[in-house]
Design goal:
Order of helices and strands: HEEEHHH
Structural class: mainly alpha
Helix content: over 70%
Number of strands: 3
Strand content: 5-15%
Radius of gyration: 41 Å
Mean pLDDT: 77
Largest sheet: 3 strands, antiparallel
């Protein structure tokens, strides 16, 4: 291929057409050898074009064969590795769901502990001052509202996260193909919008 490109470059840069024959098959080309002399060279244009096209055809065939081999190797690799990649993806999604549940469970445990401490604080208030007006005492109201808010937030967080992440875990364990199809569908849908 380099040889043909060099021939084309040489023809185009060193030769200047001076006369064309009537049938346009042969061209008369002049090459300047020195300032005083010039050599007249006649070349069969069809032969040059045929050689160039043959070189291009051979090089194109080699490129096509090399790309065909590369695509075939890539396909074989993907085909061989796909089951392992899918298993790893499913394990990762399963672990991800378990980690989210564990984090929310720890936060909920902390909120339940905080609620328990606030309930103890309210009991301590009532124990120290039995005449405490429950409707007008800011400490008592804050303790009771805080205690119940912590419990409600912890319960709602646990219910929501366990139901959502539990569905993911269930799909992965029971119907992994359905999970993959839904995951791909949701990914494509989210990228389109």
């Amino acid at each position: 291929m380099k040889h043909y490109i060099a021939v084309i470059a040489m023809i185009l840069s060193l030769y200047v057409p001076v006369q064309a024959s009537t049938n346009l098959v042969e061209k008369t080309l002049i090459q300047k050898v020195s300032d005083n002399t010039s050599i007249c060279v006649e070349t069969n244009l069809n032969q040059v074009i045929t050689e160039i096209l043959t070189g291009v055809k051979n090089a194109g065939g080699e490129i096509h064969q090399a790309s065909k081999n590369a695509v075939g190797q890539a396909y074989d690799y993907v085909k061989a590795e796909s089951p392992e990649i899918i298993k790893e993806f499913l394990r990762w999604k399963l672990l991800e769901a378990c980690i989210v549940i564990a984090i929310v469970a720890m936060a909920s445990c902390f909120l339940f502990y905080l609620s328990h401490r606030m309930g103890g604080y309210v009991k301590e208030l009532l124990k120290n001052d039995p005449r405490l007006d429950r409707n007008n005492s800011g400490e008592y109201i804050f303790g009771m509202v805080g205690k119940w808010m912590c419990r409600i937030i912890a319960l709602v967080a646990l219910i929501v996260v366990i139901s959502v992440q539990g569905m993911i875990i269930g799909k992965i364990l029971v119907a992994p193909r359905v999970f993959i199809i839904e995951y791909v569908y949701n990914t494509i849908k989210s990228h389109r919008s």
